Amino acid sequence: MEITNKxxxxxxxxxxxxxxxxxxxxxxxxxxDLEYIDMLSGRQTGMLLxxxxxxxxxxxxxxxxxxxxxSAMMMADALPDDGExxxxxxxxRYRKISEPFFEREPYCSKIRQKMGNALEIIPKLDGTFDLIxxxxxxxxxxxxYRLAKxxxxxxxxxxxxxxxxGGDVLNQNNRKAEAIHKMNEIIRDDHEAEQLMLPLRDGVxxxxxxx
Length: 211
Ligand SMILES: C[S@@+](CC[C@H](N)C(=O)[O-])C[C@H]1O[C@@H](n2cnc3c(N)ncnc32)[C@H](O)[C@@H]1O
Hints:
Layout: H1 6-14, H2 21-33, H3 42-56, E1 60-64, H4 70-78, E2 84-89, H5 92-102, H6 107-110, E3 111-115, H7 118-124, E4 129-134, H8 141-151, E5 152-161, H9 175-188, E6 193-198, E7 204-209
Parallel strand pairs: 1-2, 1-4, 2-3, 4-5
Antiparallel strand pairs: 5-7, 6-7
Helix pairs in contact: 2-5, 3-4, 8-9
The structure holds S-adenosylmethionine.
C-alpha cells in the first residue's frame, strides 16, 4: 500500500531542499553498485532528520542501520564541528560504498562506523546520545527501542523509520509488521515519552524522552 498519494509525495518532495552534491554522489554510487537502493531513507526523511538535529542542537547521535550512509551524512551535516555520529552496520558490501564518502571532509571527523550486530554493539557503547535513529532489521524494533531508552539522554529524541511498513501494521500479516506494531504499542504506552507518528513516506515516529 502506498501511504501517500504518489502525486502528493512527488509534490512534497519537490518542495523539500535538495541534498548537497556529495550526498547526490553517494546515491548515484549506491545505485550503480547495488540492485536495489530502496532501503535508503530518501530526501524527505533525510531532511526531517537533518532539521531535527539542527533544531534540537544534538551533538552526539547514534544510528542503527547505516546501509550506504545516506541518513548518516544528512544528520552529520547538521552536527557542529565537534559533534559525533556513531552508526552501526553489519553488511560489508554496504560499508565498501559508504567508506570513501565517510573518509571525506567534514564527515571524517564526525562519523564513526561500527561493524557488526547492532544488538551486541549498542550495550557496549559508552555514554548517552542526544538523538538515536532506528532503521535496522524490523523484527528487532522492540529490542532496539528498549536499548535506545537505555542510551538516550533525558530530553533526547528517538526517531524510528518505517513504522507503517507499507500499511502492513494495520493487519500485521507478517513478522516484520507484527514486530513494528508491537514497538509502536510500546512507544504509545511509554509514560516517560511523548511521541508523534507521521505518515511520511513509510511512516516516521518521533519520540521525545522526558527531561
Ligand atoms: C533500511 S537500511 C538503513 C538505511 C539508512 N539508514 C539510510 O537512510 O540510507 C537498514 C540497514 O540495517 C542493516 N542491519 C540489519 N540488521 C542489522 C543488525 N542487526 N545490526 C547492524 N545492522 C543491521 C542492514 O544491513 C541495512 O543496511
